[in-house]
Amino acid sequence: MSECIVKAGNVRKSFKDVLALDDFSLTACKGEIVGLVGPNGAGKTTSLECIQGLIPFDAGSVALFGEDVYRGLTFQSRQRIGIAPQFFSLPPLLTVSEIATLYQSLYLRAMAVDEVIARVGLEKQAGVRFGRLSGGQQRRLALAVALVGRPELLFLDEPTGDLDPQSRRYIWSLLLNETEKAQRAVIISTHQMDEVEALCSRVVIMDEGRILDSDTPQALIQRHCPEHLIRFNINEKYLDVMKSSFPALHFRSIQKGNQEANISLVVNTLSTTIQQLQMLEKDHQFEMKNLQVSQSSLEDVFIKLTGKVLRE
């Protein structure tokens, strides 16, 4: 059993009349990457700040490395934590190398400056001043600062928000490195559903300060959105055959043009439905063109649990 580093139980936090967190509980063990997802204002950042001990909470408990956060962490425990906040600002005239050196001096068992800079792919920017870095480069520097102390607990708030796809995948590979992953727990707050599916062993979906559900990405998909989507084109004269053969299925879209119909079917039993379609194709001698099959995603689960209405 991996060492459980984070234990938060029934945490409650209010800002005047606004309830930001309500009965929030979370654990994170070594080897785990736990993702916090939710709409704007769901309580993700507040929960991170309570767990880190940056703001006091009204009720509940939080322990890191077995120490009560409310009473304050010892120097030894703080040495084992790395944090990359969503908003990261430093003196604009300091270079990447100078910033890494500054943070390196805070940790007893820190990485070498050149090593941590190389780890996040900023070797060419080592002598560049912070104010001249792009948003994505600043984001990678924030990760370097979080990693420099070789943390056993890593907090990442929107870690790849400003990065291009290539840089995002590079950061993912760092976090998924098997040797380092086994030695630490990671808690990520992000809006990127593909990032959560790629990285996280467990996902916590939040809204309005409460946890709506928590499980592995695949388990959440199977529980809330087990359907598959089948798309294909057929000659539109076979539409009646399709409708009579699948009366209980929803035709998400039928677009007529060039004597072809573009059909989308939402199904629960994929293999059975594919067999039925193949039999129809053979019996009626038509062709399904551009056949595509896709599974529901974590984004579908997110929308189903939190709703489609945009909230500021």
Question: What is the secondary structure topology, with strand pairs?
Answer:
Layout: E1 4-15, E2 18-29, E3 33-37, H1 44-52, E4 59-64, E5 67-68, H2 75-78, E6 81-84, H3 96-104, H4 113-119, H5 135-147, E7 153-157, H6 165-175, H7 178-181, E8 185-189, H8 193-199, E9 202-207, E10 210-215, H9 217-224, E11 228-235, H10 239-245, E12 251-257, E13 260-267, H11 270-284, E14 289-295, H12 298-306
Parallel strand pairs: 3-8, 3-9, 6-7, 7-8
Antiparallel strand pairs: 1-2, 1-4, 4-5, 9-10, 11-13, 11-14, 12-13
The beta-strand count equals 14
Mean pLDDT score: 89
Derived from helix and strand composition plus strand pairing, the structural class reads alpha/beta
CATH class division of the domain at 4-80 and 152-223:
Alpha Beta
**Rg, alpha carbons:** 24 Å
Instruction: Give the distance, in angstroms, between the N- and C-terminal Cα atoms.
Output: 41 Å
Order of helices and strands: EEEHEEHEHHHEHHEHEEHEHEEHEH
Q: What count of helical segments does DSSP give?
A: 12
Provide the descriptors you would attach to this structure in a database record.
four-stranded antiparallel sheet; alpha/beta; 312 residues; six-stranded mixed sheet; Alpha-Beta Plaits
